[in-house]
UniProtKB/TrEMBL annotation:
Molecular function via GO: pattern recognition receptor activity; RNA binding; transmembrane signaling receptor activity
Record GO cellular component, one term: endosome membrane
Membrane topology summary: Single-pass type I membrane protein
Protein name: Toll-like receptor 3
Length: 905
């Protein structure tokens, strides 16, 4: 009781928000053309608001526990229901009743564990039933009996211990039965009886631990065309047994990969004699010994897969009997013990002589000692031979190397990755039919005299890329005028500038790769006459000099006449100049890559004939401006542009047209926001080009002038405003002074004795002690000196403000004792200051002395008292020294200030 309570409370609490969430989340399903995709939505319920006419419903990767038939009433048109990756543990028979048109039901990766006779009783139209990765351990009676239309049944990755899916013949239309990754150990006749009326193209039993094939097991099946038993521990004897059981069946395809068949003998496949087997897969078997005549029983075999084995020796009888094999894969098939030469795999002469119908032979990735004079003899239909990375020591291709292929109509020969260092004259002279010859990724280092290719009368493609070095002569390709593709990438090409051009005979050339050769010298006639050339790769060379104006004799026009060129790659050549006529003849150019050069300014009209350009790459150059007269024609039909990582100058003149084009084009420009950034002017550095505001940019001159005038006016105005803001007080102060002087308020310039006091002292109440201490001694010293001290000298009864005005007038100077206290003193502030300043303006600027007892910043002074240090002469500004010994100097300065004549200057 308590347990069930504990169980229910969280689930109830959990379901409530889910219910709310999911009701609203159903409309998240993507519906398109009667297909509803509700996958990955954490659904716990069947959506009930989808269009009723959907035919495909995808409910995969959700949290469904069941598929209640009632909830599907609405979707009666469904033909495909995919409920994979849920937690469905039970299936209601009525589901199919609600979905009469259902053809494909996928319930893989669920928790189904039991199928009853009724489960699929209404699924009459079902053609595919996917139940892999469930928990079905056994099938009782006949759950699939009514599935008369079923073609494919997948029960792999369950826990089945038997193949028995029914007690009576059924599934008459079944073609594929997938039972891999179960726990089937024995194939029993009676357990396959239910397939008595079926004709299977594929019975998949891989990854079961099969230990026994009981007599007649395969004969129980109506017809069996394909059987997969990969990844099972069969070994030689069980394999032999298997083949005997397959005798007289209609088996055509047998896959026995990874079955530990380490050896075959003349009996292993004997049972297959009475079959029409056409495909046999024996890959990944550690097969080391192929006994003589092992395949003698397989005269119908067409495809034989032997890759990933460990064969030590092919004798002249190993392949005896494979008269009809067309395809043989021996990739990585032979033993690899390379350290000891004695253990190298051995292929006897005439080993392939029986394979008279072989068309395709792959021997890649082996460690074979070499080719002998009769290694391939007898392969009279061979068209495709791949020998990439096949040999441990095929250093030299001599005129006898391929003699055993003399009677083969070979079309393709792949010799890459074999450490070949030399091709001797006539090496391929036996291969008159050859169309494709791949010699790439070897160590060839030699002069190509042309004799190497003797006899290759039908050759179309030669790959020589990635070799040590190749030195050309004018005759290098004289004997192969049929060549259409020539790949010479990274071969340290020498003498490309031979005259006449080494390429002159190649009138049919359409693809030429000369990239990564560090070429610096080529003649302007190197490509002359290659009128069919469509693709030219010249990237990663050093051709910059050829296009310089300063090149002796002028720029070299090596692209002239290439009227059919479609793609041109000139990346990474150091180009900093392009002659205006460089691309003049390339009328059909569709793509050009000029990235990773040093191009800055391109001549206008350089792309004038490239109206058909679809792709243009100029990334990582030094382009600052993109102007219409240069790029207009090239951009016209462009569908792809790469100009990323250039130092764009974000001014109207440089990129306004470009930005305008970017914002209106459909051309694909990737990484526009992040890889197209302004470099200059400084204020735009790092700013995305696409966001550059072009609205102030217009192409008319008057507008520009207006713009300049506007800008200047704005600048001057700004300057004035700023000047007034920071220096306005100075202007108004001196203005006042000037006005007063002009109006005749001249300094009365009274003599000192005409004043009653030497100075009126303005200070904060808190600072009175300091004032007493410092001024009264001065009075005592000099009897003529008298200060007006408010506390002492104000007559009793006189109103304070009047007294102040009066006293200030009667004093020759006014001293401000400036401290933080004074700044806070509300009475002192403003009024007294105003009086003093007024007097100063009327009379004399020298009449004010500021004594700073503390460090007060100018802005505070201005803020509190409307005074600034700048208004006064420096001798009128005194700072009370911290050090005692300087006090004497302070008094001296004060006396100087008091004695100074009041004057404006
Ligand atoms: C099925 O539909 C009923 C009624 O609409 C609903 O209450 C129930 O939650 C649904 N069940 C599922 C699993 O969708
Ligand atoms: C299916 O139903 C939707 C609306 O629910 C409608 O727009 C669409 O045309 C219908 N499709 C067909 C083939 O009837
Ligand atoms: C359903 O969706 C899953 C995942 O999105 C996908 O793998 C699966 O193929 C889809 N099923 C069908 C029948 O389209
Ligand atoms: C099977 O589908 C067809 C239409 O394709 C339909 O006419 C027929 O009634 C369906 N069969 C059953 C048993 O529902
Ligand atoms: C093999 O094929 C032939 C001809 O196609 C046929 O007559 C013969 O019955 C087939 N053998 C088996 C065992 O199916
Ligand atoms: C199989 O080979 C053995 C020798 O290894 C030989 O004695 C026997 O006759 C061969 N059987 C057949 C059917 O060729
Ligand atoms: C192969 O070359 C050798 C010399 O290297 C020559 O004697 C021989 O005649 C050549 N054979 C063929 C078939 O060209
Ligand atoms: C030759 O074989 C290598 C390695 O399998 C492969 O990459 C290359 O494309 C092949 N060459 C041709 C021309 O098919």
């Amino acid at each position: 009781m308590s347990r069930s309570l504990l169980y229910h409370i969280p689930s109830f609490l959990g379901l409530l928000p889910f219910w709310i969430l999911c009701t609203s989340s159903t409309n998240k399903c993507a519906v398109r053309h009667e297909v509803a995709d509700c996958s990955h939505l954490k659904l716990t319920q069947i959506p009930d608001d989808l269009p009723a006419n959907i035919t495909v419903l995808n409910l995969t990767h959700n949290q469904l526990r069941k598929l209640p038939p009632a909830n599907f009433t609405r979707y009666s048109q469904l033909t495909v229901l995919d409920g994979g990756y849920n937690s469905i543990s039970k299936l209601d028979p009525e589901l199919c009743q609600k979905l009469p048109l259902l053809e494909i039901l996928n319930l893989q990766h669920n928790e189904l564990y039991q199928l009853s006779d009724k489960t699929f009783i209404f699924c009459l139209n079902l053609t595919e039933l996917h139940l892999r990765y469930n928990l079905i351990h056994a099938v009782q009676s006949n759950p699939f009996k009514s599935l008369k239309a079923l073609i494919k049944l997948d029960l792999s990755h369950n826990g089945l211990s038997s193949t028995k899916l029914g007690t009576q013949p059924q599934l008459e239309n079944l073609q594929e039965l997938l039972l891999s990754n179960n726990k089937i150990q024995v194939l029993r006749r009676e357990e396959l009886d239910f397939l008595g009326n079926s004709s299977l193209t594929k019975l998949e039993l891989s990854s079961n631990q099969i230990k026994e094939f009981s007599p007649g097991c395969f004969h129980a099946i109506g017809q069996l065309f394909g059987l997969s038993l990969n990844d099972a521990q069969l070994g030689p004897s069980l394999t032999e047994n298997l083949c005997l059981e397959l005798s007289n069946t209609s088996i055509q395809t047998l896959s026995l990969g990874k079955t530990q068949l380490y050896r075959t003998s003349n009996m292993t496949f004997a049972g297959l004699k009475q079959t029409n087997l056409t495909v046999l897969n024996l890959s990944s078997n550690t097969l080391s010994v192929i006994g003589n005549d092992s395949f003698a029983w397989l005269p119908h075999l067409e495809y034989l897969f032997l890759e990933y084995n460990n064969i030590g020796h092919l004798s002249s009888r190993s392949f005896y009997g494979l008269f009809n094999v067309r395809y043989l894969n021996l990739r990585n098939s032979f033993t690899k013990q390379s350290n000891s030469r004695a253990l190298l795999p051995k292929i006897d002469d005439f080993s392939f002589q029986w394979l008279t119908h072989l068309e395709y032979l792959n021997m890649d990735d082996n460690n074979l000692p070499g080719i002998k004079s009769d290694t391939f003899t007898g392969l009279v239909q061979l068209q495709y031979l791949s020998l990439s990375n096949s040999f441990s020591s095929l250093r030299t291709l001599a005129n006898e190397t391929f003699v055993s292929l003399a009677r083969s109509p070979l079309l393709v020969l792949n010799l890459t990755k074999n450490k070949i260092s030399k091709i001797e004259s006539g090496a391929f002279s036996w291969l008159g039919h050859l169309k494709v010859l791949d010699l790439g990724i070897n160590e060839i280092g030699q002069e190509l005299t042309g004799e190497e290719w003797r006899g290759l009368e039908n050759i179309v493609e030669i790959y020589l890329s990635y070799n040590r070095y190749l030195q050309l002569t004018s005759n290098s390709f004289a004997l192969v005028p049929s060549l259409r593709q020539l790949m010479l990438r990274r071969v340290a090409l020498k003498n490309v500038d031979s005259s006449p051009s080494p390429l002159l005979p190649l009138r049919n050339l359409t693809i030429l790769d000369l990239s990564n050769n560090n070429l610096a010298n080529i003649n302007d006639d190197l490509l002359e006459g290659l009128e069919k050339l469509e693709i030219l790769d010249l990237q990663h060379n050093n051709l910059a000099r050829l296009w310089k104006q300063a090149n002796p004799g002028g720029p070299v026009h090596f692209l002239k006449g290439l009227s059919h060129l479609h793609f041109l790659n000139l990346e990474s050549n150091g180009f900093d100049e392009i002659p205006v006529e460089a691309f003049k003849d390339l009328f059909q150019l569709k793509g050009v890559s000029l990235g990773l050069n040093n191009l800055n300014i391109l001549p206008s009209s350089v792309f004038d004939n490239q109206g058909s350009l679809k792709s243009l790459s100029l990334q990582k150059n030094l382009i600052t401006s993109v102007e219409k007269n240069v790029f207009g024609p090239a951009f016209k039909n462009l569908s792809y542009l790469d100009m990323s990582f250039n130092p764009f100058d974000c001014t109207c003149e440089s990129i306004a047209w470009f930005v305008n084009w970017i914002n209106s084009t459909h051309t694909n420009i990737s990484e526009l926001p992040s890889h197209y950034l302004c470099n200059t002017p400084p204020q735009y550095h790092g700013f995305p080009v696409m966001l550059f505001d072009i609205s102030p940019c217009k192409d008319s001159a008057p507008f520009k002038l207006l713009c300049i005038i506007n800008t200047s006016v704005l600048l001057i105005f700004t300057f004035i405003v700023l000047f007034i803001h920071f220096e306005g007080w100075r202007i108004s102060f001196y203005w006042n002074v000037l006005v007063h002087q002009a109006l005749g308020f001249k300094e009365m310039d009274k003599q000192p004795e005409q004043f009653d006091y030497a100075a009126y002292i303005i200070h904060a109440y808190e600072d009175r002690d300091w004032v007493w201490e410092n001024f009264s001694p001065m009075e005592e010293e000099d009897q003529t000196l008298r200060f007006c001290l408010e506390e002492r000298d104000f007559p009793a009864g006189v109103l304070e403000l009047e007294a102040i005005v009066d006293s200030i007038k009667r004093s020759r100077k006014t001293i401000f004792v400036i401290t933080q206290n004074l700044l806070k003193d509300s009475l002192c502030k403003r009024f007294k200051v105003h009086q003093a300043v007024q007097k100063a303006i009327e009379q004399n600027l020298d009449s004010i002395i500021l004594i700073f007892l503390e460090e007060i910043p100018d802005y505070k002074l201005n803020h509190a008292l409307c005074l600034r240090r700048g208004m006064f002469k420096s001798r009128c500004i005194l700072n009370w020294p911290v050090q005692k010994e300087r006090k004497h100097a302070f008094h001296h300065k004060l006396q100087v200030a008091l004695g100074s004549r009041n004057s404006v200057h």
